[in-house]
Write a structure and sequence with these properties.
Its main location: other. Keywords: Cell projection, Cilium, Leucine-rich repeat, Repeat. Belongs to the DNAAF1 family. The protein is an alpha/beta fold. It is built from 6 helices and 8 strands, in the order H-H-E-E-E-E-E-H-E-H-E-H-H-E. It has an 8-stranded parallel β-sheet, covered by helices on one side.
């Protein structure tokens, strides 16, 4: 029995620590059902959750996405300028087209697999170090990841697997290697690319000419 109780005790301690971390994360304003209903009333939206196709839950101080299960009709969700720590609890938003998560504290792109109609996602001004888990979104066209923590070719190579992407904003990261060109050249539908504020612009000789030659369908680079 002692041999069994010891690992169980370790598991209990680990679970307790995890729960404590979650509780710490959830301090501050909560995205409760009551708060969302109040928001709908104040913004003259529908009281019946599934009838709403948009929610403006920005500038609320939320640290966690929660209690959106009944809002199945959403096509546009504004969650920017909160204190969100992760992307989560969006599995019911299968009709979502646009998701705005900029100016939060998100470190990882995850939990988007149910959003098969998603066209646009804005994750600028977060703490993302790697682009991942976007290729599962078949109609994703527009991605904004400016002002994050992207540095290497490996951090962004997943973009080449996102077949429908046409607009990509990676401005004001820390991309340095000229090899990033290979990623963009592999994106056959790329039309708009923004790399302003990255050291790589100075590391590629004839930067604009090289990008426009390598990216066959590119129509807009940086600010022009």
């Amino acid at each position: 029995m002692p041999q069994i109780s010891e690992p169980l005790s370790e598991i209990d301690n680990a679970l307790s620590k995890l729960e404590a971390i979650k509780e710490e994360e959830r301090k501050g304003p909560r995205m409760t059902k009551e708060a969302i209903r109040k928001h709908c009333k104040e913004n003259k939206l529908y009281f019946t959750p599934h009838l709403n196709d948009v929610l403006y839950l920005h500038f609320k101080g939320y640290s966690c996405i929660e209690n959106l299960e009944e809002y199945t009709g959403l096509k546009c969700l504004w969650l920017e300028n909160n204190g969100l720590l992760r992307i989560e609890n969006l599995s019911a938003q299968t009709k979502l087209r646009s998701l705005y998560l900029h100016n939060n504290i998100i470190r990882k792109i995850e939990n988007l697999e149910e959003l098969q109609l998603l066209d646009t996602i804005n994750l600028s001004h977060n703490f993302i170090t790697k682009i991942e888990n976007l290729s599962m979104l078949p109609v994703l066209h527009n991605v904004t990841l400016s002002h994050n923590k992207l540095e290497t070719v490996e951090d962004i190579c997943h973009l080449a697997q996102c077949l429908e992407l046409s607009v990509v904003d990676l401005s004001y990261n820390n991309l340095q290697s000229p090899d990033v060109i290979q990623v963009f050249a592999a994106m056959s539908n790329l039309r708009v690319l923004n790399l302003m504020g990255n050291p790589v612009k100075s590391n590629i000789r004839n930067y604009r000419n090289v990008l426009t030659v390598q990216c066959k369908n590119l129509q807009h680079l940086d600010d022009r």
